[in-house]
Amino acid sequence: MKTNILLLFQFPLKNPLHFLLTSFLLFFLFACQNPAEDVASSESEPAIDEEAIKSEILAVQKELFEAFKQGDYDKAFSMHLQSPAYRNISDRIYNYDETSEFMGSLKSQGIMAVEYQVIDPSFNILDPNTVIETANVTSKLEMEDGTFSPVIPGLATIVYQKIDGVWKLGHVHVTDFPPEE
User: Which candidate in 47, 51, 94, 165 could, as Cys together with 99 as Cys, close a disulfide (CB 3.0–4.6 Å)?
Assistant: First the structure.
């Protein structure tokens, strides 16, 4: 089994918190991989069907984005991993309960739907049950009065985990690009 190494950089790293978060994620990725174990077990592990896994992730992503586009935030949130370890990082770090509360408040904030688009996704398949996707993304909010927000470009990193045969979003990190001047 090959050892996968994914380097994530958030530019600019002006904020010490961004540096710490990036350092923690890199530490986590390295700690989860044991090269000695990979060499010892490489002969007995079945090959990973990367194309099939990517296809499964893209299907989950399509279902997630359709739920957001329909304003079905309950369905969208049900696709996230219910775990104390879950994190959603955007304007701050949200745990599972805080993310639930935030998503439950979107319609009361006048946000009726969210349209996402993924550009140039990259998949790092750590094992048959763990995938990291990084991509450029755009989002657009549909407001209660029928108007749309300007398109918001950004970067996303999503860690998908397959639990009991179902893919869940275990960690989400979205950073919007600063507005152009």
Answer: 94
